[in-house]
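Progress note, sequence design subtask.
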């Protein structure tokens, strides 16, 4: 019997869920076999973090007046006085002094060279202007130096910046690993390929060929699988459908989607009741279900075959997704192409985004998976 027959509208929800769980298990089983083949040929996965442009920019500089201190004991007092007049606002990455090659002589940042300020014929007194600075220990000579304009966000930026002027740098280990492609261990990479394959398999059943899989990364449990349904309803993009299915798995949801290849993990009543009662205790007198549902994807990861649009990316913000992985860029995508919505200031939730590149043999696995799925479920795909 074909699944399309098995999943007729009159079938009970429980039976549907059981069949769809079998569908998920079968996909996983087959993909695991493919992954074993992939390992034999040492196929690798490439994962690119979608970070703000500031992580990739070259080190820019700006001009500062720099004095010389030849009395070591005056240094901390001078730092204090100069800082009270010119507090290096927004430039906390800069160290105020640096050693010179002359014994016991330091260089000290006095203040930025202002825009339109003539940088010719300046002297210590003209640079200090009306500021009441005790100049004891400051030599007469003042120079204009280039200093790094922005804090170093990566070790590569730091290496360049520190050669220009001493700077503070706190390494973000996750960012460094992420840029080197070392953020995910072998097992995590296997899972990413697995869920991406699931996504690609599902995508073929959609109006637009987009698939979305939502996963609980702690348990690797698939919470929802969705394909695109925009011909049924203009906003039923795969991501929107997936988020709604997650809501449905938690007792909510706005759409009664009964597509043949969508799936949502049926949380047990006990599981849901315990979550709702915890929320009730924390928020007495409020509708616990309503409170819980807006945060329905908290801690979950979304795997999407194509970069989501603005509407879908915002839905992922509202639902508090943890991470998003996608394969193909989209000209109207909001997570790297048109904009980087996930890092927009002012939003009350941010998530990490990665673009995933599957190498040829993995893509081939996807192709065979597509064919196998079609045969298995006898789906009338219009792709
Ligand atoms: Zn969309």
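Output:
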């Amino acid at each position: 019997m074909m699944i399309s027959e098995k999943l007729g509208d009159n079938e009970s929800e429980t039976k549907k869920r059981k069949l769809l769980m079998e569908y998920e298990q079968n996909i996983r089983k087959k993909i695991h076999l493919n992954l074993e083949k992939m390992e034999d040929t040492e196929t690798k996965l490439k994962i690119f973090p979608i970070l703000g442009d500031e992580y990739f920019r070259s080190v820019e500089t700006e001009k500062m007046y720099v004095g010389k201190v030849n009395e070591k004991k005056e240094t901390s007092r001078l730092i204090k006085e100069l800082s009270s007049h010119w507090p290096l606002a927004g430039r906390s990455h800069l160290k105020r002094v640096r050693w010179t090659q002359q014994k016991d002589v330091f260089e000290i940042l006095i203040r930025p060279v202002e825009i339109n300020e003539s940088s010719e014929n300046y002297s210590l007194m003209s640079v200090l202007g009306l500021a009441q600075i005790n100049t004891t220990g400051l030599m007469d000579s003042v120079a204009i130096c280039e200093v790094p304009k922005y804090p170093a966000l990566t070790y590569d930026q730091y290496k360049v910046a520190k050669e220009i002027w001493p700077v503070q740098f706190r390494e973000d280990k996750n960012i460094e690993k992420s840029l080197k492609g070392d953020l995910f261990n072998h097992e995590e990479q296997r899972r990413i390929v697995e869920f991406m394959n699931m996504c690609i398999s599902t995508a073929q059943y959609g109006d637009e060929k987009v698939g979305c899989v939502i996963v609980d990364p702690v348990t690797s449990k698939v919470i929802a699988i969705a394909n695109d349904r925009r011909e049924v309803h203009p906003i039923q993009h795969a991501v929107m459908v997936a988020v709604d299915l997650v809501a449905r798995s938690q007792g909510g949801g706005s759409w009664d989607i009964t597509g043949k290849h969508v799936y949502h993990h049926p949380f047990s009543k006990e599981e849901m009741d315990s979550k709702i009662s915890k929320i009730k205790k924390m928020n007495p007198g409020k509708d616990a279900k309503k409170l819980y549902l807006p945060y329905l994807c908290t801690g979950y990861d979304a795997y999407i075959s194509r970069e989501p649009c603005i509407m879908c990316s915002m839905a992922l913000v509202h639902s508090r997704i943890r991470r998003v992985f996608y394969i193909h860029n989209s000209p109207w995508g909001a997570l790297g192409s048109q904009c980087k919505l996930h890092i927009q200031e002012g939003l009350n939730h941010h998530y990490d985004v990665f673009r995933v590149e599957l190498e040829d043999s993995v893509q081939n696995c996807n192709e065979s998976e597509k064919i196998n799925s079609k045969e298995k479920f006898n789906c009338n795909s219009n792709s």
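Residues 297 and 321 are 5 Å apart (CA to CA). Work on this subtask will continue into the next period as scheduled.
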